[in-house]
# Entry
Amino acid sequence: MIQNLRRQEKFVLIPSQKIDGKVVERAVHYIADFVYVENGVKVVEDTKGVKTDAYKIKKKLMLKLYGIKIRES
# Structure
């Protein structure tokens, strides 16, 4: 049984970059399809048809920054 189901939760992977208060590079986000708690553990799940190069990098950043291994279905 799962609890606390949320959809389209956004995670910041790289914050926006500013020089003199002006944004020169926008932030990079990963938007999870589903986030929920299963057996007391937070699960981030993504449903992918095609694993793009951008997704593969974001998946690695999620593990590095948040310690979250994305569950793929």
User: Anything to note?
Assistant: Helices lie at 53-66. The radius of gyration is 14 Å.
